[in-house]
Amino acid sequence: MRLPTRLLSVLVLLMAVQSLGRAWVSNPCASPVEAQCDFLCDCRDCSDETQCGYNVASPSLGTPFTCDFEQDPCGWQDISTSGYNWVRDRAGAQPEGPVAHTDHTRGTDLGWYMAVGTHHGTQASIAALRSPVIREAGPACELHLWCHVTSGDVAELQLELTHRAETLTLWQSSGPWRPGWQELVVTTGRIQGDFRVTFSATRNATHRGAVALDDVEFWNCGLPAPQATCPLGHHHCQNAACIESHQLCDGEDNCGDGSDEDLLSCSQHMITDFETGLGLWTYSEGSAWNHSTGGPKGSAWPHRDHSRNSPQGSFLVSMAMPGNPAMLLSPQLQASGSHNCSLIFYHYLHGSEDGRLELLLQTQSPGTSQAPVLLRQRHGELGTSWVRDRVDIRSTHPFWILLTGDTGPGGVVGLDDLILSDHCTVTPGVVPPHVPWPKAPRPQQSSLQGPCQPGQLACRDLCVPPEQLCDFQPQCAQGEDEHECGTTDFESAAARGWEDVSIGQLQWVRLAAQESGGPSKAAAGHFLSVQRAWGQLRAEARALTPVLGPSGPHCELHMAYHFHSQPQGFLALAVVESGSRELVWQAPGSSSRDWTVDKVLLGAHHRPFRLELVALVDLDGPGQQGAGVDNMTMRDCSPTVTTEKDREVTCNFEWDACGWHLGHLTDVHWHRVESHSSGHDHTTGQGFFMLLDPAEPRSHGRQAHLLTEPQVPVAREQCLSFWFHLHGPQIGTLRLAMWRDGEEEVPLWSGSGTHGNRWHQAWATLHHQLEPSTKYQGLRDGYHGIMALDDVTMQPGACPAPQRCSFEDSTCSFSSGGQGLWRRQASALGHAASGPWTDHTTETAQGHYMVVDTSPDALPRGHVASLTSEEHWPLPQPACLTFWYHLSQHNPGTLQVRVEEGDHHQTLSISEHGGLVWRLGSMAVQAKQAWRVVFEAVAAGVEHSYMAVDDVLLQDGPCPQPGSCDFEAGLCGWSHLAWPGLGGYSWDWSSGATPSPYLRPTVDHTLGTEAGHFAFFETGVLGDGSRAAWLRSEPLPATEASCLRFWYHMGFPEHFYKGELQVLLVSVRGQLVVWAEGGRLRHQWLKAQVEVASAEEFQVVFEATLGGQPVQGPIALDDIEYLAGQHCQRPTVSPEDTAAHVSVLAAVGGALVFLTLLVLLGFAGRHWLHKKGGWGWPFQRDKDSAAHSFDNILFNADQVTLPAAVTSNP
Questions:
Q1: What's the CA dihedral at 178, 181, 182, 187 to 10 degrees?
Q2: Poorest-confidence range of 146-150, 540-544, 946-950?
Q3: Do residues 784 and 1021 lie in contact, with contact meaning Cβ atoms separated by under 8 Å?
Q4: Class of CATH domain 974-1123
């Protein structure tokens, strides 16, 4: 029942008041200013931490303070002083050239980010984005953000932190910039008081790139909250906070008030912060201590020290090359009593994968000389952070601690804050040795060393260069070049290439089974286990292989693992390639405590790539929490490995993917899936097919590949046919190409945008030369819809002529007779003077079409240029051949379209003057035998003239009348191409019976059954803002009066939401709305008609949009009829309709009588109550409120019809 408008407004107001009341009650918190934006939720709803550069929805342990810019800028402000500034933006809001095609949060064009556009000036300019005031960052605080650089590059990106009068550079880079979103992680260190973070981009005349910023996260930034009592083994700070006992006197303010680092508590510790020199330590040549500002600008040199977290602080730094490490020596030490002598130190490795820091112990036994013992080793790239570590030494003899550091080109190894515990005693009077200290023993990759260059591996008389190490193709006779590449059972102490790179509280350690206390079945041997570590930064444990690759499509990793962590934790494997990580495997949540065997398909990857083990385990949780891996074996990883199945190109995907394999060059993949409620296969309707989901979670790649291995051709020409499904309001592009390594790929076929909710067959002829590979490439240039493949077949011989041709990838086997005057071109390539500015398929200058120059110099008057198709198969039923043509404004002559079936010819002649638009031509075709179509240009001898053809299509059924369509065979001449500036969305075509993920009518209007078809648009995909989808007719001639009739359907679940359907007339004069309707819950077909008039050639446009917030609901159209030159007639009412109308009026009249009686009784009751002094009325009627009236709708027996007086154009 419809509620009266005034009563509805009152209810909405009451609901709003109640909602406000609940908000006031649930958030009575008013925290002081100094407690706001400090990463601690003082209010129950964390409202004191909003608009602080981050938002918090549900604060919990380990949850970062995040801003994804989806709702607002979270307090970030543009402080640029030039015309280049930061704005909150999204890809779908840009008609052309967005800063980023997707955001990082959602991975689609609906997500928001902060962006600054392309620089067009000549002067250098800085765009600066500044956070609001933030307070009190803890020592382990990390700032994570994602950055995207496009349209070339930028001169410099910089992240700075301003604290009091000091500005600290957290990160800066001048490129080069990789494509796509890249993660940046920096540590702020302990910041006392207020601070701000500023992200800036510098551009100039030669560096004009656009920049986007998304998903800013602050991790582990809050200081510990005060507590009445502390857990066992913890220290109670002076400010009542609790910290772990090992955090005392570790060089960091963990309490927040400095009480854990005060001089009284730490007076017995020997601290060397390098502010005034080396302290008790000595060094040999190769080392030098310096201020961080002394490093070359733009190098890997630290921007700040650890002690003061300041660019003015000092630290020790080494840039020594491998083979000549810098050495730092402690005084002779003795552990006091039964206690350990502990060393805490902070190290920095950045700028080179060859950087190495080693800590060795040299003991002095009476009468003996022992070699140094390696206690700790860090190798590779650890980022721009100072990482904490600790060693505990128990020795009955005096000892020295030796720290050595060396690095590769451009790298830096740094040390700061060497802290010896209070149980370390310096032996007085012992002079450190002045002879060169022995180097630490390192594993040798080969027992025989020959005359090889640095970095090369010597095996017998062969020198293997670095690029051939771990390439899965052994060069050495014993395979030594493939030994340290990740295949291992961990029985060797070297771990066969796996190296821990953790910087937090967990690490990967090679452990004996007897020591682990892990799985009960692990009685002997070694494995890689997650153990505690002394790092202070990110908690997860990480281990990396050396650089690997290239790998082949069959590459697999076999391994055994155990994993148990409650309630949180994970164990995963990632592929690190080109600076990005792709998750390829993850253990099921809290798996069994016993060992489990599994395998992971890695697939084909370019060199260099690495494997990374990542684990997070709560070792303090109940039970035997832990994670470990063992028996890791890489199999069939050589690119030369082939199988019999690789030759199986023909495939219906029912049992497997045959010879087709996934490309792993991006994180977007095809998936073999089974038929389900929103999609079915082509083979049986219940089987399997290959699916690409453009909105796949956590995917940000631009394309996915489905490939074959190089094939040996059985004939010079082969026909590859397949069935494809492109359906959805914003689906991307599917391409088929042939390629060989090192050569440019040859495009064979492509389809863009929705082709309706059905399977279509396509084919392409492969002209072989050597051994090519074939690939299907799915582009994520749309994010809503289904992209699917099924029933791929390869047969010898050429394919027949295709049923549709857009000329985007080829000429579709059309041949130009005579002098070859017809040519395939795009106006963007510089040929616009002899052809249209845009094609019809894409309506852009980059789109292709076929064109012939009919100027006298190219084609004299009366001469003919022909364009002939390949043979088409015979037609089992009548069909319609449609094509779009474009004639120059100067009379080019006559375009003749001829269908040739043996000796029978059927010709259509077009000899009109051209214009600025593409026009639709059609021919009915009936062919019992093979036939061809020929486009002939008969020149008129006029300068600067041409004829062009695009989008040739053959479809079943008769040809529709201009502007009319029942949608049973397709969209007829109506174009659903996404219109620029409207968000890139398209109308679609479907039936009620075909599975689809989108809401739509259950039956059509034409047939009234589930099998009937209609055009529809799902408005739920529309985001905030003015976005819409257009369905456009072909150009129609000017008219004084014509009638447009159509049936429409709307269905929206909520009363407050509604879709809107408008009819527009679009011409050179602009746009004119001639009809509009908003729909809510109306699950029925409604008839409408509108009278149109235009003095110019025009197009009819149906525009679907939303009148409220985004909500799922379909708008559908069917049985569009354009009656040229005819006025719309008022609908006549049949006797049956009259009877139904009378019955409806009788029912309504009866209801009115009943309501009148109720009203009279109500007034009588009110009068009685008033006389008795009873209750008053809760709602008083306004004196000037208008009386209610019936909607002007005629009720028929089976539908509702709007009268012509309502729907016609006045």
A1: 150
A2: 146-150
A3: yes
A4: mainly beta
